[in-house]
Amino acid sequence: MRGRVGLFNCRMQDNTVQIVAPEEFGVTAVNLLESVLVERPNALVVLPTGNTPLPLYAELRRRKVGAMRVAMLDDYYDAASLTTNSYHWLRREVLDSLNIGDERVLRIPTAPGNLPAACAEYESALARAGGCDLIFLGLGPNGHIGFNEPGSAVDSRTRMVTLSEATADANADYWQGAYRPRAAVTMGMGTILEARRVCLLVRGRNKSTALRAALEGPEAPDVPASFLRRARELTVIADRACLK
């Protein structure tokens, strides 16, 4: 059964999106998180990397919201061998500021070796932790979610993936051209859809086509974000540029 898409101002077919001004983006996202923490003070929350969630993290730092546990959405393959990675990024942008120590962070495995077994253990660890209460996600211009590139199955699980050329190029920008990632490990779409609540964060005019495809187009592996309509409860927070 499809989850409901809730409490929005702008209707797109049978789905709705909350359109906010830039200064309201982080506030709106943190308000959602705090509503979850009221119900589950020790909630397990998935935090993404990238430019899109930066207003969320700025507002988290401002309010000192740090009661939750955190699970990682994705990271680069063999991340420990890199000078920076998704874990370092999250530490810098949000975890250290909120005093969220390693004991409250469920890190996604990336080490070479028996990675399929490690990914299966990550899935088991999520289950032992009670499952994800809230997953924040960004949206790739090609409709990818986490590192679930076009072609990802709706029931895919945590696994290693090869990055598309577009995604590799976009991530290379974080390295100022010094490194171009080719592979990563990501929560699968099936893993994401098991969360009690999903919040899709979308900023920028370059995400407009992907957002419309995700909410109005057919559900298909070509646009992994389209599968989010199957979430138990989906919240979409988008800035005004996304509808231009």
Describe the structure.
The chain is of the alpha/beta class and 244 residues long. The chain has one domain: Rossmann fold, CATH 3.40.50.1360. It is 30% helix and 20% strand. It has 7 helices and 12 strands. The strands form 2 sheets. Strands 1, 2, 3, 4, 5, 7, 8, 11 and 12 form a 9-stranded mixed β-sheet that branches. It has a 3-stranded antiparallel β-sheet with strand order 6-10-9. Helix 2 links the parallel strand 4 and strand 5. Helix 1 crosses helix 2. It starts with a strand and ends in a 5-residue tail after the last strand.
Produce the secondary structure layout.
Elements: E1 4-5, E2 10-12, E3 15-20, H1 22-39, E4 44-47, H2 54-63, E5 69-72, E6 74-76, H3 86-95, E7 105-106, H4 115-128, E8 134-137, E9 159-162, H5 165-172, E10 183-186, H6 189-193, E11 198-202, H7 208-216, E12 233-239
Parallel strand pairs: 1-12, 3-12, 4-5, 4-8, 5-7, 8-11, 11-12
Antiparallel strand pairs: 2-3, 6-10, 9-10
